[in-house]
Amino acid sequence: MNSELGSSADGDQGSDSGGSGRVLDIYPLSCYYFGSKDPILLKDETLADRILRMKSNYARYGLRTCVVAVILVELFKHPHLLLLQVKNSIYKLPGGRLRPGESEIDGLKRKLSRNLSVNEDVDGSDWEVGECLGMWWKPDFETLLYPYLPPNVKKPKECTKLFLVRLPPSRKFIVPKNLKLLAIPLCQLYENDKTYGPIIAGVPQLLSKFSFNVIDS
Question: What is the reported pTM?
């Protein structure tokens, strides 16, 4: 079951330090408010155009680094992952590409504010970005991804880092009208590369080191 939260149309935190106390508090979906704001500009390009753009950016800036958020809520007594859907077909973890010289944490907070907050100009201090859960690599400009850097690859073209983002007991999610915010159960994501792609389908395995503590509303 998919739960749509924002659409186009018109407790205490568990400690994750030191490898002990791997408890992740998650709150019911009903604790959160979901609204919409003006659409954001989305690139409408072919795969060939995208590859050309990536080659140009790589020549100018080097390795492209993307940062994305793993955000969980509880629904029907099961952890659900928040995903953005683009054009009713493409699923993405909230986040995006870092600017040159931008830190990973600051970049992710900027992207979360842009896609999920009322005001994208705020400093993002209300987002609690935690540990890096995993990394995926592109050895070249094509679409093939690896959850490790192949030893024969000396100059990878892109790295995507997944960060755990813990939610407070309540907050407002304000989503651009040309995106949808969905809550997808982990059991639906697991090994479902065909629908969600390898990065999202691999999230349940990355989260296997945590115990989920559902905080009743």
Answer: 0.88
